[in-house]
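Please check this protein record:
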Amino acid sequence: MNTALSFNRLVTLGLWVVGGGTALFLIAPIVAIVPLSFNAEPFFTYPMPGLSLRWYEEFFASDVWQLALRNSIIVAIFATILSTILGTLAAIGLSRSDCPARATLTAILISPMIVPVVVAAVGIYYAFAAVGLLNSLTGLVLAHTVLGAPFVVVTVTAALSGFDQNLMRAAASLGAQPVEAVFRIMLPLIAPGVASGALFAFVTSFDEVVVALFIAGSEERTLPRQMWSGVRETLSPTIAAVATLLIIFSTLFLATIQWLQRRAERQKLTQFE
C-alpha cells in the first residue's frame, strides 16, 4: 500500500513538473516583453540600464499609433455587433430539431475557424476587390465579422444545448409569438453564452493582423498591423509597450469569459434543478 501511494505521489509530482515546465515555456516569451516596455534605452537588452515610461508616453502621444488604436476599436465594436447578431441567429436556427442539413450548415458556418487565416484572407481579398471594399473600414468590419461569427455560433450553440425547449412551447401555448418568446425567454437564459461569444468575436477582431494586411490601406491600419509594420521598419520599445497593454487587455477579457462561462454553468444547474 505504501509503495502504491509513493508511486502515485511521484506520478502526480511528475505531472506537475511537466505541466509547470510547459506553462513556463509558453508564458516566458510573453512575460519577457513586459519589462522591456519600461526600458529607459531604445534597445531590447537585459539587464536594462534604467526604467522609464517614455514608450507609453510615445504611444499615447503618437498620431499614428492613436489612429491605429481608434481603427481597431471601431472595427472591433461593429464586427462584434454583427458577429453576435448573425451568430446568435444561426445558432438558434441550428438548434431547432427540424433544421435541414444541420451538420452541413454547421460545418460551413464554422469553417473560418478551421481554414488557415491566410487562405481566408486571400479569398476575402479577391471577393472584396470585385465589389470595391478594399482599403475601407467597412470592408475590414465585414471581414472580421466573417472571422468572429463562428465563435458566437459555437458558444451560443453550447448554451442552447442546456436550454429547455419546453419553455418555448409553454410560451407559445400562452399566446406568445415566436419572436417575443425568443427575446423574453430564450435570450435572457442564454445571455452568458451570447456574451462569451461576443467577447471572443471582439478579441478575434482586435488581435487580427493577416486579413488587415491584405485588405486595409494606410488610413485603415489597425493596432496589430501597425505593430507588424513597426517590427519590419523601426524596431522600437513602443511596440513592447503596446504589446504589454494588449497582454493586460487580453487577460482581462479571458477572465471575463471564464466568469461568464461559470455563470452559464450555474444557470444550467439551476435550470435542471
Notes: The chain has a mean pLDDT of 81. The chain has one domain: 62-272.
